[in-house]
């Protein structure tokens, strides 16, 4: 039987460069949950029984996982080792990074080089081959929350067992998201990244082929002030005629 290597967390820079050593979990989790949604707009058409559904944008994927820690092997008496010595490293992933002023980016991996079920993980099976969660080597994101539940204590009240529940929000750079989206068909909604100095009418003329369509773009993206666009903003562009 082939056994999975220990799951671990690796701190990363935004460019993918590892920072420091990996944090190895004590025991592999028994399960994990991936959740992702999309934002859909309902466009009412007079005379129709139901509105037209328009895809707006995807929402951030979230990984939820429970990790078990136990230090009773070191004894349960006065010299017992507190389980917090194992869990504090993960709890610190919520703390602000001194350089970025934001929580650190982490890469969660489980197995030799991927998640269980990955299409390239040999005897572990394949749950997907054309994209999605089972083709990735790990889950890159920012730890959104950590809930620590201590379940066993020494006679002196030292916590010896704990379950950590983590929620991790997926992290992707703007370049990564645009590269993945890369729409080609002219009859489908496209994305446009606002550049320095661009205006809503200029974007409408370039991307939607009609400067007068700026109102449609503004409404589709829920812009409060379409004439004040911040560089880097990703706008959904409706299908061209």
Account of the protein in words:
This protein is an alpha+beta fold. It folds into 2 domains: 164 residues, Elongation Factor Tu (Ef-tu), domain 3, CATH 2.40.30.200; 62 residues, Membrane-bound Lytic Murein Transglycosylase D, Chain A (Roll), CATH 3.10.350. The protein has 4 helices and 11 strands. The chain has a 7-stranded antiparallel beta sheet, covered by helices on one side. Strands 4-5 form a two-stranded antiparallel ribbon. The longest helix is centred in the middle third of the chain and has 8 residues. It is elongated. The N and C termini lie far apart (57 Å).
What descriptive keywords fit this protein?
two-stranded antiparallel sheet; 13% helix; 4 helices; single chain; Membrane-bound Lytic Murein Transglycosylase D, Chain A; 241 residues; 7-stranded antiparallel sheet; Elongation Factor Tu (Ef-tu), domain 3; alpha+beta; 11 strands; 2 domains; 30% strand
């Amino acid at each position: 039987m082939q056994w999975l290597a220990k799951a671990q967390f690796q701190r990363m820079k935004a460019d993918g460069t590892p920072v420091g050593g990996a944090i190895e979990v004590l025991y592999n989790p028994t399960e994990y949950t991936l959740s992702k949604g999309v934002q859909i707009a309902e466009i009412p058409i007079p005379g129709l029984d139901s509105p037209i559904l328009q895809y707006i944008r995807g929402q951030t994927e979230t990984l939820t996982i429970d990790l078990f820690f136990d230090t009773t092997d070191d004894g349960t008496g006065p010299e017992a080792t507190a389980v917090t010595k194992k869990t504090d490293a993960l709890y610190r992933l919520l703390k602000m990074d001194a350089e970025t002023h934001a929580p650190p980016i982490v890469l969660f991996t489980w197995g030799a080089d991927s998640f269980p079920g990955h299409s390239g993980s040999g005897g572990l099976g394949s749950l997907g081959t054309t994209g999605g969660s089972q083709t990735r080597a790990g889950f890159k994101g920012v730890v959104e929350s950590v809930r620590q539940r201590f379940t066993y204590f020494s006679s002196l009240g030292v916590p010896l067992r704990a379950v950590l529940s983590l929620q991790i929000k997926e992290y992707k750079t703007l370049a990564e998201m645009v590269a993945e989206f890369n729409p080609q068909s002219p009859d489908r909604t496209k994305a446009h990244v606002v550049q320095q100095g661009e205006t809503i009418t200029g974007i409408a003329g370039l991307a939607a082929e009609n400067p007068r369509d700026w109102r449609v773009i503004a409404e589709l993206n829920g812009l409060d002030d379409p004439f004040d666009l911040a560089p880097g903003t990703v706008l959904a562009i409706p299908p061209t005629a």
